[in-house]
Protein 1
Amino acid sequence: MTTDQALAGLGLIVVLAVASQLLASRLRIPALLVLLPVGFAAGALTDTVDPPRLLGAAFSPLVSLAVAVILYDAGLGLDLKRLTEHTRRVVVRLLWLGTLLTLVSAALFAVPVLDMSMPAAVMLAAILVVSGPTVVGPLLNFVRPAERLQRVLIWEGSLIDPVGGILGALVFHGVLTGGRHGFGTRIGEFLVSAAVGVAGGAVGAAVLWLVLSRMRLSEELATSVQIAAVIGVAAACDALRDDTGLISAVLMGMVMANLPGLDIPARRPFFDTLVSLTIGLLFISISATVTPASLRHVVLPSLALVALLVLVTRPLVAHLATLRTDVPPGERWFIGWMAPRGIVAAATASTFSAELVEKGIAGAERILPATFVVIVATVTLYGLTAFPVARRLGVLRPARSRPLLVGGAPWAVDVACALSSAGLDVLMWAGAERERARIAAAGLKLAPGELLASATGAGAELEGITGVLLLTDEDDFNALASTTLRESVEGPVHRLAAPSANHGVVAPYTGGESLFGGGLTGPELSRRYEAGARAVARPAGDPLPAGHQVLFVVGPEGRLAPVTDAETPAAEPGGTVILLGPPTG
């Protein structure tokens, strides 16, 4: 292959990966629905996109190291303190029951139907255990199921990736050692492989902890250090024992997420960008290696395997996991209808299958194409049916807005009470104890924990929030929080306007629409409240009383629209308007 051909191939892979993700975001569908067919078509129709030919012997190691980075990132999201008791019980059951039943059922089914040897079938079954947040998350964001239901599925997806990665690596080594020596020797080699991965993860986490806790690093340099540590440790482990790097990467992420006294930022833009790009490149590259010839005798048996996993195994896992819990029947059935396979399944299949084929494991050549079919079929099926199924089961989140009001000034609590009287599920947060006491005394719900961590961390307490209103007396806090939360909270984020153009250090230079307009800043609202002004809720059809000013409009279905300095939303019949009355003093 010439230099020009290599450049064209590598460049086209990058362009196809990013273009597919861009198209998927515009269509609001999981990126896999675009990445997989695009990669398969590029590999089948051109000689340019041929990763094994472009990269040679480096292709499989690069895939393994890329998966290590993805699994490390998944591990960073596993702050186990955020896994509440009720959610923990259901998620833990889903993990061990799902792993056990999927492993057994898929392996037993694959032997006769896919014409595999038992070692190859067990390897395929271990690969198909995983689901993953990179697939489940976008689907749930589109469907918007009930808050608790979404939390359970997100946690399961986040945890099953590292569990599946570890299981896949261990089964891989078990298969490789299965034909050698005696049972005791095989167990010994199996334990050695596990020990190498665990030791590598412990050493890598210790090094990262020392560097990140003892040195003051910028976000970019701290991210570079983490990437270098993960790749370095995973490569060293793989060099010692094949594919133990996946174990070390998962453990490094989990340890770093749960070490006390270590502040790993909830938002990691550079790292997140790298992981997103890596996922796109992997899917294009891996799907391009699946040839039409390899699928010829695999498609129908693999679709039969999909039917088993979707219609039998997953519903059984869901019902056993929620047995004797307070999970309603509708939520049980929806949990049983949500287990798409994703990037870790594809990458581990690509990593493990090639070496198993080289070792002469019967049926190993069917592992990658079968995994490809399962991924495409499950993502397509769940992507097309998740919303109508959720609507039919009655587990969709109510359309009514659930705003978070940040701030505990008397006038802010009064506004929250008016919104609550309009039928909204209002949540408040404040830092000062006296403000939190004032919120509690008004009978309003108080968000627990530290605001920014709650809004951005995995398993966040603020799931279900449809918008944030920043109403504190600190204009710079409002400005900074709006910048941070805008990328983390599902709905819009609004803040009070600064009293003047030169007020504060940050506030005057932060963009975005400000609340209310007409000079209604924090100090002005406090002054009017002290003078007797109060927030009231009135039917939208009533005439506006003299001296009153519109703050919010609540639509007939409970959707909240605030008045901003740029727009005053129109009130619809059957809705409610929140007004600020005139001072009485």
Protein 2
Amino acid sequence: MKTSLTYTLIMSCIIANITIAQKKNTMSANPKEIIAPKKAVVYQVFTRLFGNKNTTNKPWGTIEENGVGKFNDFTDKALQEIKKLGVTHIWYTGVPHHDVIRDYTQYGISNDDPDVVKGRAGSPYAVKDYYNVNPDLAVNPAKRLEEFESLIARTHKNGLKVIIDIVPNHIARNYHSLSNPKGVKDFGTDDDTSVEYARNNNFYYIPGKAFEVPTSDTYKPLNGEQNPLIDGKFTEYPAKWTGNGSRQAKPDINDWYETVKVNYGIKPDGSKDFPELPAGYDTKDCKAHFAFWKDKDVPSSWKKFRDIALYWTAKGIDGFRYDMAEMVPYEFWSYMNSAIKMKNPKAFLLAEVYNPKEYRNYIKLGKMDYLYDKVETYDHLKAVIQGKTLPDGLSDIQNGLADIEHHMLHFLDNHDEQRLASPEFAGTPEKGKPMMVVSATLSSSPTMIYFGQEVGEDGKENAGFGTHSRTSIFDYIGVPHHQRWMNEGKFDGGQLSQSEKALRDFYKRLLNFTLSSDALMGKYQEIQKYNRDTTSGYDSGLYSFVRWSAKERLIIVANFSWVTTSNFELKVPETIIKSWDLKDGLYDVTDQLYGSKAQLKVTNGIGTIQLSIKPSESFILKL
């Protein structure tokens, strides 16, 4: 690990991510002492589903049939229990007003056409009004923004930070804000629709052609239900490019046809039509980036999304999760993120980026705090638990990311992916335990979990548009394991089984340890290869590494096997023993999860620990 470079990057834009929940661990009696940052833990909730108590779960069910959660369901008790789990930030997913199939015309909201809406509850990534929130989430839709503002305040009162989505690459086809601040115009209002591309157009157009609703032999809006707006038509002339970049007036049914792509000054041939950052800006901080853009002429869409982000920042939002950020040029991110940091240096900026070759551009030039570590760490862990590969490759991944490891957020579950406990992924929540330990302790990056993960939610419901293995983001549905923890709004786990209670206890122990650990913000070194090559009984499912700082030393061992108990003598190489300045002798070590004891024996400069590790068990051994 290149610790000095990691901390330089952290200090430039991110050091202020220390949260209220962590202050007791980081406050110093010496005001001149630099306070090291600690781990952040993000709890993603799908806001529409979190508080829903209805267990009907009818495919394609309405709100009346299947229920829906509200902002008010996040009570002080709920928020306190989430915080006690070991959480610092809540990502309220699906808050901005997106298309929904429900009549809110009495509140001045136009009805949305099922021909261009996915599911009945609608995709949270087809935003219709960026200056307001989803009316489904409010007890009184006329006061929906005020109800969300109350939730922001309530979340802060309970010592947690608030993250919401911004979806910069695309917006709903029928975007229309009822809540624009004074002087703000809707996207596309001033566009020249006679041309495919103009620098200050907010959209790309297909001149002379009308949009056509995609067709399919296997899919019908609302599952074929009668609806006055379902006629296979949606008026849009000229047609716009579709959200995923399709340039067809009639996109494919598998395209993101419910959305239109936003133009950021990228010409149809892929060339850039805006100022580019000069050489050397990869090493400059947010203040320098902000200064660079201050006198530059930038495309209209840049200004619109910057204003949206600053609008929510002013309302107390502590950070953003950016959907499909790599489909938008990193120069725009430099422009917007530096503007956000000037208003809130502590802002938590997380981006969905899946191209490892672009990671450093989005971190260093785009000024992102964190990116998904999906295609490397997540994908490898998934392959390990499915028996497709050995865990050994994790070492190469971590070493390859050493200069940016702090910025690569780790997760095993989110709204896009198959549920960790689903048959399509790990198969049982217990098999996910060693994955979670490694994911949460392998680097100094934040950890994210998805609501229900901590009680074994497996996403097996057929919700309608969304089917099994993922908790649907398109439908009104209940989340059974989570509902058992919610216990009719008591948020006390009263309906959980013993195994579900034990699982949540495991997550609570692990996440709270990561919040307080100094070593997890320090150095990393794998001891996997050394043990694989030299240790008798070191079975194929085992993975081991060490983490340390000046204050704390950890030896972490995980058993990914779900059938094999391994008995072996773990070796700690001479290089580690020397780094830790350990002399020959015996040293007590204690597991930080469940308190079991062992001894590290150092002989001739090499350490050994006698271990017996059960299937799906892990140890975080602290000297």
Protein 3
Amino acid sequence: MSTSKAASFAKSSAIMGAGTLVSRVLGLAKTMLLTVAIGVTIGGAADAFDVANKIPNNLYMLLAGGVLNAVLVPQIVRAAEQPDGGKDYTDRLLTLSILLLGGLTILATALAPVLIWLYSSSTWSPEQTSLAVAFAFWCLPQLFFYGLYTMLGQVLNANSSFGPYMWAPVLNNVVAIAGLLVFIWMFGPGSEGQHPVGEWTGPMIVVLAGSATLGVVAQALVLIWPLRRMGFRYTPRFNFRGVGLGTAARVAGWTFGALVVGQLGFLVISRAAALGTSQGGEVSASNAAYTVSYLIFMLPHSLVAVSLATALFTPLSKYAAAGDTPAVKDSFRTGVNLVGLVNMFFTAAFIALAGPAAMVVGGAGFEQARALSLVIIAMIIGLVPFSANYLLQRVFYAYEDAKTPFWINLPQVVLTSIGVIMSALILPRHLIVAGIGLSMSTGYVIAMLLSFILLHRKIGNLGGKTIVFAHIKFGLAAAVSGVIGSFLLSRLGDFWASRGTAFLAAAGIGTLMLIIYFGICWALRVPELRSLITTVRAKLGR
């Protein structure tokens, strides 16, 4: 692996990582405020809002997200070789995407009651279902603006302007946090079930769901400014024939198929998680607990894998278009090892410190933290394979191959769904979502192995021995730091019984774990760590 290339990719993703870090920190603050406003595991309002607010995210991934991510950058990179720099092609591609996205958003909003029925559970009361439908009418317009954000952001990324795309969600979180503060100020906290489903009013619904949607609107529209500064001027063009959109349509079709399969799997997860809905005053992990745990799971993935993959995707697409297979392989090895270095630590840290992490995010006592911590541990086991498969998929997309990821996704979803269904049928109510998390982690491992095998067949030897050997070193360092972290936490007893002390415990032990982890990696002569240190030294020296 090229150490200079690792340093270059680390440098390219630094600004994106910083934006993602700020966004995720604010996202955690938003989640904490949300638990103060409507709770997590007690009562039905949190689950009603969670399902309604997740639907536009899931539909976006189904209808636009993965399709746009897989199509836009490779197509724009290739179109840039045209005499006009690809402007005409890009305008037509954006116009078609905007029209389709707008029509689908209108249709989805009209079908809000049907969508709530699909994603919720028959165990819900009529009041909880009605509340979720009311939330959905306000949340579903997010679908269009999520898509607009992705389209504008991918135009920026294709032109190697990565920062704005990663920093825009910061504004989303700021707006949403402001909305939650207004909600708590106007209607009071609801962390212990003070806002039962039958007592929600129109203003409460508007403030909570409306502010969530307003944040997504701001996230999309703020990208217009950097595009204009870059010199990009969008001109709507409605003639879609004879301009080379056929390849884009084929890639989009296979990607859409993969996302349909994925969303069918998520429907199984959502309905199974809804079976864990608390009844009366009991504490039980359900959809809201799943979302909070998934947010924690996605934090390291977003900080590292997404930032690095975004930086990698443009050069990967250029190498693939030029037929430079060795450069594609080298870039992939560099990326997957850098991601593995960071994610292996996060895996150990969240397993050791799942209790304090759950307390910081969820609050409301040991029982709720215990319910969340089991889900966090079950999910975080799959972090390393999940991020590795994310990078593997980007290599396929760089070659305009969305067919192979579809066939990889199919057995993953089937096997994960079987595990989810078995969890719902066999496990006690309070363990259902933890079983779901473990089933998802198993699916990520399967998908990673299939992706690696099929990519090896497609472009040849990927340097598997080098990658495995590097991850063994990461694993050894993570295991030692994890054991030490778990031991230190056990010595604290119930010190982390509040959000403040839980944060102190997680921050203190986590910092020590990080020092131990990097120290062992340094002793094992891990080149990825030395590349990161070189980049940091250069930044500090500057």
